[in-house]
Hints:
This protein is α+β, with helices and mostly antiparallel strands. 57% of the residues lie in helices and 10% in strands.
Amino acid sequence: MTRGFDMKPVRIFLPALAALAAACAPVGPDFVKPDADAAGQWSQELTQGLEPAPQGDPDWWTYFNDPVLNGLVDEARERNNDLQIAGLRVLEARAQLGIAVGGQYPQVQVAAGEATYVSPPNHSILPSNYWQYGLAANASWEFDFWGRFKRAIESADAAYLASIAGYDQVQLVLTAAVVDTYTLVRVTEEQLRIAQENLKLQQRSYDIAEVLYRNGADSELDMQQAKTLLLATQATIPALDAGLVQARNALSTLLGQQPGLIKTRLEQGEGIPKIPQQVAIGAPADMLRNRPDVRQAEYLAAAQNALVGLAEADLYPSFSLVGSIGVTSGGPGDSDFGDLFSTDALTFSIGPQFVWPFLNYGRIKNNIRVQDARLQQALVNYRETVLQAAREAEDAIAGFIGARAQAAILAETVTSAKRSNDLSTLRYREGFSDYQRVLDAQQALFSQQQRLVTAQGDVVSNLIALYKALGNGWQEQDTPRVDPETVETMRQRTDWGELLDEQAPPEGDEMWREPDW
């Protein structure tokens, strides 16, 4: 539309078009939260200190009453690289949401200018060389008749919330990994201590057997058997030493440190973590509410659900308002730049347009089918996540009950093995039994002590797995997801506006709608 055209139709058309766009419901399916089939109670009887009482403090590792462990968990949450990456993914998803929100506003706004020098050919009718000047602004605003942009925002909203749940899941896994690796360090240290104790005991026995053999009071067989047992115990130490170094290195990596830097801190430890007498595990429904991976699977399904409607909107025509305004000057015989700002230089156009790709050869419909198939995959993935969560919890319960019962039996076994070793040694010295009884008793003692330490570590590991399966180990964000140094680096490198400032996620079904400009 050019100057002099009646503006009345435009004034009527625009409000009508906007009202019609607002009245149209977004095409495509609305997301329905999938049902999470949670059992009313655990499938097995709770024993060994487990009880279905509501869970208490989500910081479950503090129940071990180990200050060194508490400090390691806190440091891992501050420095772990995987957790930092998960925090950066939240920022990425928040920026992607800003892109989707911006789609509601005029999609094209372009300012352009030109200054062109024209030199016509000699045979041209134009009298001489000249300049042409121009300034213009173009805009296009597609109205959201079919909910294309609403669905895009819904998808980005859900993807943003899924990234937060993903961060929580990494935090949960990291916490369990730190406690589990710390337990492995303490178990290996205890196994080394026991090996050293038994090595001293067996060394004394070997020395006695050697002296008796040298004096002709005993056979060489007893001495060689004592030496065999001694060397077998010695052979376990190098492997334990190597395992201890590897466990410390793994713990250092979880803390974002170079290997070897953590050794001094671990010297202040409390031994294998002591588990609480009573462990409250709640009900299966509590587990599903707590687990971030279940929430993440739900949000990913919601994000994909919105993409089905986004694809379906391509079946229908899009309606836009397009316009431009500009000034031009210059030409043959008159190339004065100052004329660019005169009223005669003004030109503009405005009007509606629609685009309808009606001959798409099935591409749009097949894209809808692609998105719908992906939606169904996401829904099945949600059901599988719920199913795996239940299995992990039940497995951890069974593992904890079994490990704790085994450790109790092995504790009695070790007591019996110690008594057996004392009696066999005494009877040998008094001449009432042969040396083979002493060797058998010492070998049994070392074996049962190692089994007991391994079982004690298994009890703690299964309890860690249980807390992890129950969805414990993450917390509502009250500290920055990205460390301040990284935030400052990104702020100086790129204009992030307010996105680097920590913001609480929306509550309930509330969605982010503010553009991040």
